[in-house]
Amino acid sequence: MVKILDNNSISRRNLLLTAAVAAPSAALMGMAAKAAQVTQASVNYQNSSKDGHSCSNCKLFVAPSSCKIVAGKVSPGGWCELWNDRPGTN
Ligand code: SF4
Questions:
Q1: Residue 15 has pLDDT above 50, yes or no
Q2: Under 8 Å CB-to-CB from 24, ≥6 apart: which residues?
Q3: Whose CA is nearest to atom 8 of ligand 1?
Q4: Check whether domain 37-90 has CATH 4.10.490.10, yes or no
Q5: Coil, strand or helix: which one is 68?
Q6: Cα-to-chain-centroid distance, residue 64
Q7: With DSSP H G I counted as helix, E B as strand and the rest as coil, what are the percentages for the chain, rounded to 5?
Q8: Average pLDDT rounded to a whole number, residues 36-51
Q9: Which of 51, 54, 70, 89 for a ligand 1 pocket mutation test, highest count of atoms within 8 Å of Cβ?
Q10: What percent of the chain has pLDDT over 70?
Q11: From the CA of 86, how far away is ligand 1's center (Å)?
């Protein structure tokens, strides 16, 4: 009986330690992801397409209105200098 309680105590302690480590790590990863994004101005984002290229046909577009690397809300009909249609980039 004591051994079972000891195992349960260890499991709870390990669970709490894992949670204590995982929570700040997740927060840091979120911060790193945001830090990796560039501003719309720095990539000349515009709310209209260019030469048939637009966010909606860019591999970096995240529907309905986000981008993997450009910060802020983007339009499916928008465009920026980082437009990308290469396979395997998303
Ligand atoms: S990289 Fe540029 S063109 Fe592609 S989705 Fe993001 S903002 Fe739009």
A1: no
A2: none
A3: 55
A4: yes
A5: coil
A6: 15
A7: 45, 10, 45
A8: 97
A9: 70
A10: 57
A11: 13
